[in-house]
Amino acid sequence: MRKLALLPCILAFVPMLTEGATVDPKALARFDLTYVRCEAQMPRLRGHRDAAYLGMWSPKVHDKVRGQLTVARNGPVYGAERQRIKQAAAQRTSGPAPRADAEECKTLLEEVERIAAVKK
User: Fold this and answer.
1) Model-level pTM?
2) 111 lies in which domain range?
3) Is 98 a member of any domain?
């Protein structure tokens, strides 16, 4: 239940990733920035970003969808959204970058571990 309550905080407006669906570059940028902050707090998350993103929305992590993520990350919309988020965060605080919420990171770690268990 806690996981469902946190999803809107982590992945606001992320579309369902199904066969034929496209990746929303803006939502992906928001997810990636949160994930990077969580990686800094929980090193076990390193190397599992795509699996965590796709695991929340798609039952299968396959090459076609991973390719869509790569295309989205290399696109101008993703870059602009990422820059906008970073600039907004810099204006809000003059100190170090805000830490990701511990619950968000815990939820991401649980998702990565769930995916790893399914693959075994």
Assistant:
1) 0.59
2) 2-8+24-119
3) yes
- The number of residues making up the chain comes to 120
* pLDDT per residue as tens digits for the range 11-23: 443 444 444 557 7
Q: What is the Cα–Cα distance from 24 to 69, expressed in whole angstroms?
A: 9
Residue 54 has, within 13 A of its CA and on its CB side, a CA count of 22
Domain count, the chain: 1
| Position 16 in a domain | no
**Residue pair 48/115 in contact by the 8 Å Cβ criterion:** yes
102 inside domain: yes
pLDDT digits (tens, 9 = 90+) for 34-92: 899 899 888 889 988 888 888 776 656 677 878 888 899 999 999 999 999 888 877 77
- The rounded radius of gyration (Å) of the Cα atoms in the chain is 14
